[in-house]
Structure formats: C-alpha cells, structure tokens
Amino acid sequence: MNLPWSKGLVRRTFLAPSGTVLTAQLALQHGIACHLAGGTHHAHYDYAAGFCILNDLAIAANVLLQQEGIERVLIFDVDVHQGDGTAALLANEPNAFTCSIHCERNYPFEKKIGDLDVALPDGLEDGAYLEVVSETLHKSLALSRPDIVLYDAGVDVFRNDPLGRLNISEQGIFERDFQVLSELKRRDIPVATVIGGGYDDDRVKLAKRHGIVVEAASRVFSAD
Ligand SMILES: [Zn+2]
Predict the structure, then answer these.
(1) Which of the residues 29, 124, 151, 161 has an alpha carbon 20 to 30 A from that of 174?
(2) Per the residue annotation, which of 42, 81, 102, 210 is the catalytic one?
(3) Among 66, 77, 43, which residue's Cα sits nearest to residue 154?
C-alpha cells in the first residue's frame, strides 16, 4: 500500500474502521456523528491500495446490516477518487447501495462498478459541482431508501489538492457538506460522516479542511 510498516500504522489500521462502526452507532442514536478518520475506500477484500488497508465503509455497512431495524445502507462517497474497493466489496450485497461522485481521469484508473457512479470532468468548479452532488444525493436516496447513510466527505476535491483534479473552493466544500447533511436531517435519516482523502504539506490547513464537515454538521444539527 506504499506505506512503511510501523506499530502506529497497525494500531491506526484497526482503530479507524472500529471508529467508523462506532460513529454509525452514535449516528443511529443522535441523528449525526462525525468520525475524525475513515473513508479508506480503495481497500479491497484481499489487498490494500491507494493508502487504504481495511475498508471501513464496507465493514461498517456489513455490521449495520446485521442489526435489527437496519434494512438498507447508503454509502454516499464524494471523495475525488472513486470508491472502487467499497463498490467491489459490496457488489453482492443488495441492501448496501454504493454511490460515488469522483473525477473521471483520476485514480483508480480502472473503475469498479458501484450502484451509482458519477464521473466528473477535470477542473469542475463550485456551482456545477454542487448541482451534481445535490442531484445525485436525491437520486441515490430515491433508489436506496436507506435507514442510515455513511457519508465520505473527502476534501481532495479542493482546487489546490495535489491528488485532486477539480477546482472546488473551501467554501464550496462547506456548501457541499451543508447541503448533504441538511437534506438528510430534513428526511430524518441518520448520517455518519468520515473524513476521506485530502492532501497538503501544510498539516494545519489540511486538518482545518477535514474539519469542514464537522463544522457543517454542527451548523445543521445545532439549529434545534
Ligand atoms: Zn481520495
């Protein structure tokens, strides 16, 4: 997976997916919960890929589907890269709906087929992007009728991200997350968020960017 082995990496590899499972449980209780990790959507059943070792989204979906009261799960993935591992792992699970909105010409170069894949052109800007996200969210909700949503709010759509190819501002990312979470709240569907991808040599700026989804959640859910 192109990451050097270390005890810290092993610990993180097991902790992060457990965190996604826990976040989903908290979302069922509170309507919203945000994980400060997760979204390792390139990991497959028997191999790691794209810095992803275990696929927390597939693991959490499978755990949820074994619970009473959960019949269908939607994974709504807006990381700039396709959630290929998630699509492949859940291909034979009809009650887990995988939706990915990603940049067509970006990694992984061999895409897997999810339940709803939306490929975006390079350089897409805020206005057009927000429209696609809104339209795709409505479509995937109508098709999947989920009891819970796992939302991968990757920030590598950001215009200066070295591994993204889109042209989205930080304000655009906030509006994206705000609009997704508002719609799910309006429909009373619990949502667990994970941070997904995001790359920047400036770690403080990157952490703040990953914090956008938490800020949006706080704004949407503290209105009560
Ligand atoms: Zn990514």
Answers:
(1) 29
(2) 42
(3) 77
Q: Which fold has domain 7-221?
A: Arginase; Chain A (3.40.800)
Dihedral angle, C-alpha 132, 28, 31, 213, nearest 10 °: -50
What's the CA-to-centroid distance between 80 and ligand 1, angstroms? 5
pLDDT for res 209: 98
184: three-class secondary structure by DSSP? helix
Task: Give me the pLDDT at residue 95, please.
Answer: 98
d(CA 40, CA 19): 12
pLDDT for the residue 223: 62
- How far does the centroid of ligand 1 lie from the alpha carbon of residue 66, in Å? 28
The structural domains of the chain, with segments of one domain joined by +, span 7-221
Distance, CA 38 to ligand 1 centroid (Å)?
A: 11
Q: What is the pLDDT of residue 224?
A: 59
Residue found by looking up tokens 């796992």 in the block: 150
Distance 155 CA to ligand 1 centre (A): 8
210 tagged catalytic: no
pLDDT, averaged in runs of 10, over the chain (224 residues):
88 96 98 98 95 96 97 98 98 98 94 97 98 98 98 98 96 98 98 98 97 98 76
